[in-house]
Design goal:
Strand content: 25-35%
Strand order of the largest sheet: 6-7-8-3-9-10-11
Number of helices: 10
Helix content: 25-40%
Order of helices and strands: HEEEHEEHEHHHHEHEHEEEHEE
Structural class: alpha/beta
Number of strands: 13
Distance between the termini: 34 Å
Bound molecules: adenosine-5'-triphosphate, magnesium ion
Largest sheet: 7 strands, mixed
């Protein structure tokens, strides 16, 4: 028998090892990604009401990606954008952009982060541009705040307006520009200090579809020609269909991702394929799509069954013959551990 005093250090070192492993896993999560959201929680509390806007959200974005974010109103999209923009901080969890832990930034570092590392474009054009400055002055302002000299400011701001097709608006204030022109000048302004990350929260929300397409093309230019990693919130299916990766947020968590890739058909024409995946988070959680839950009348508890190449999810309803003539999990005495629906006979 192991003496009690010998068992204690062994157990303690086991726990210490587990702790060290968990810390290593946490530190290496998203290593190399430009944006790392690690179990991000944001709770708004006030007047006795608590809103859990983000509920343990995980998201990784690699440098160079252009990602669309979709989700119902109130699902937490703007909350996440504000945190990534350095305007708000999470209640719990960790957010890293370009290796900087946003929760650990002091006031000066936070200001530097907002000036140089990240650019943002909001839905309301009035929030993006200063109304009493011309387009060119608007673009030059972030450069001036970052200490760029006058000559370089003048040439760079003109270059940026040209890249986004609004050089003709250089000497106009926003009131003399169309909605689309304002948003394209706003993108030029957001990129004035060549940030690595460009955030756009429904930048096309107030525009007609043709103009929205032009603004989205400007975001693509920011991505392909200026090398910015772009995260764009949109309700516009035409926009989300044009990106390779669309992340859907539901109830403060990433729920599904649609990945698109192009192949060629027999005639050499490009064909785009889209595959929707459910997100499996690091705690092992998957959100089942609402339509599937309703179709299969699932609620409260479901049974899981591990098959050779997939996991079956079963509504907890009266047993009947399952598809393919198999028994439903829970049928008969061969049932395995409670709650898993894993029959012992499957361990063969
Ligand atoms: N400052 C705040 N104080 C309290 N609750 C807030 C605050 N900001 C957002 N919320 C709440 O947090 C939740 C998420 O809001 P958020 O603005 O992130 O949603 P959204 O996905 O951007 O929605 P929309 O598509 O309408 O813009 C909502 O329930 C919202 O009411
Ligand atoms: Mg929003």
């Amino acid at each position: 028998m192991v003496p009690a005093e010998a068992a204690v250090p062994a157990a303690a070192s086991g726990i210490a090892e587990l702790g060290a492993e968990a810390r290593r896993a946490r530190a290496s999560y998203g290593e190399g990604a430009l944006v790392v959201c690690d179990q991000v929680v944001r709770i708004y509390s006030g007047a006795g009401i608590e809103v859990q806007a983000l509920q343990g959200l995980d998201l990784l974005i690699e440098e160079g990606e252009l990602v669309a974010m979709v989700g119902a109103s109130g699902s937490g999209k703007s909350t996440l954008m504000n945190i990534l923009a350095g305007l708000d901080t999470p209640t719990a969890g960790r957010v890293k952009v370009a290796g900087q832990d946003l929760g650990a930034l002091g006031a000066r570092e936070r200001l530097a982060y907002r000036r140089r590392q990240v650019g943002f474009v909001w839905q309301q054009a009035s929030r993006n541009l200063l109304p009493y400055l011309t387009a060119r002055q608007n673009v030059a302002t972030p450069m001036r705040l970052s200490g760029v000299d006058r000559g370089r400011r003048a040439s760079l701001s003109m270059e940026l307006l040209e890249v986004f097709g609004v050089a003709h608006c250089a000497n106009r204030t926003p009131s003399g520009m169309s909605g689309g022109e304002q948003q394209r000048a706003a993108i030029a302004t957001a990129l004035a200090n060549l940030p690595r990350l460009l955030l756009a929260d429904e930048p096309t929300g107030e525009l007609d579809s043709q103009t929205a397409q032009e603004v989205f093309a400007a975001l693509q230019t920011a991505n392909t020609e200026l090398g910015a990693t772009v995260l764009v919130v949109t309700h516009d299916p035409a926009v989300s269909a044009q990106v390779r990766r669309t992340v859907a947020i539901r109830d403060g968590r990433t729920s599904t991702e649609t990945l698109r890739h192009d192949t060629a058909d027999d005639l050499g024409n490009a064909v785009r394929h889209a595959v929707e995946y459910a997100v499996l988070d690091r705690a092992g959680r998957v959100q089942l799509p609402r339509e599937m839950i309703e179709e299969h009348q699932m609620r409260d508890l479901v049974r899981l069954e591990s098959e050779r190449d997939h996991i079956g999810v079963w509504a907890d309803q009266p047993a009947g013959p399952a598809p393919g003539g198999q028994n439903r999990p829970g049928d008969g005495p061969a049932d395995g551990p409670a709650g898993t629906g894993q029959p012992e006979r499957r361990s063969q």
